[in-house]
Amino acid sequence: MMTTSEACLTGLSQSSAALGLTRSMTHVLRVQGFDLAAALFGAPDAAFDRLPSQAQALLLQGLILDFTARALPGPGAELRALEMRPGLSPIPDEAVEITGTIAARPDPETAEVAIVVEGPRGRLADASARFRLPPTEVTSPVGTRPDIQLHTHRHLSALMARSAALPALTAAVAWPCDRDSLLGPVEAARRGALRPILVGPRALIEETAAAAGAELAGCEILEAETPHEAAAAAVRLCREGRATSLMKGSLHTDELMAAAVARDGGLRKGRRLSHVFAMDVPSYPKALFVTDAAINIVPDLKTKADIVQNAADLLHALGNMMPKVAILSAVETVNPAIPSTLDAAALCKMADRGQITGAILDGPLAFDNAISKAAAAIKKIASPVAGEADILLAPDLEAGNMVAKQLSYLAGADSAGIVLGARVPIILTSRADSVESRLASVALAQVLVAARQGRGA
To answer: When you count CB atoms within 10 A of the terminal residue's CB, does the N or C end of the chain come out lower?
Structure first.
């Protein structure tokens, strides 16, 4: 065998590569491999059964080369030639067996290996490879294979593709006076998603556009001298029906929201306003919605019920009619010393009694149990939400904000942000957010407005 210990591999030498020697290795084709092959050939969103033939060949060649490096002829051999003939298309989660045989020894230094890749459906590939063998056996540590994550952000891409068929929003954009806060609505307008009314100082907006190389064609400008004036004017446009959404520019969130929640002239409807981050986390299999991370600082039980209902209504607009809500805390059991666990228990009972509708709630749940079935299983948590959460309800703004920003900066997540519960959607992004995040937030508002108006996406 090529394995001398659990941590090392030993390859064949010129004297040990006997004609007819055969070795086999079993491998399970993982979806990550298909994603990587697709990305390398410029088709990151292609379904596995629609991979370009070159991407399929790359996947199979990778299997074969891995076999030759680990099994036959193993470490130390130098590849001189490889010819592969593909057969059936590979599919994810299929266990395949790679078998190699020393088919010829043209000279003392050379070995030709015949390789076959077989699966339960039949032959996926056969190949022939020629190697220069080392004079003595070479031992190599097995090593740990790194995890590879592709940051494709396919969930937000799908959202933007879905919104492309919807009517453009008319958005009052309050104080778009830096590059990203201006390019977001301008690019959305170029794509036909937005009709922006830019509220702020005309000279500064035009100067910012010129510095960014952006065209303001199709953008209306409404003069306002200060961020406070811009916020009030943008809210007024929404109240008067001239705009169907409100969008934050480069002003502070509290300046915009003060105008939006003003008792006289604001955008309140009755339910408490709340913010939702739609997070596209590369390591999570679906979009993850985090709430509230921007508006309600220390929400009480009634406010949390509104926050949950707002988020559930948003997911209904996105087509998920029964989203799973994980109510976060530090522990999974009710503890009177931890108020968030009491709120979690009460919210679950409110859902049982129909006070919160259109969602499945469970809590308290720690973050790991909310997003990982394995973590929930270790703690013997039986729950329809654990490991499958669509919505994470944070105990307070500090926790929600930290979760969202940690996902962005440590887990490579992209996000869209929106405020719910007002007369119109409020597109609320961080001043540090990219143009793509702002475009995704516009798409989220488009879908929400279309749902309110009875249009499907």
So the answer is: N
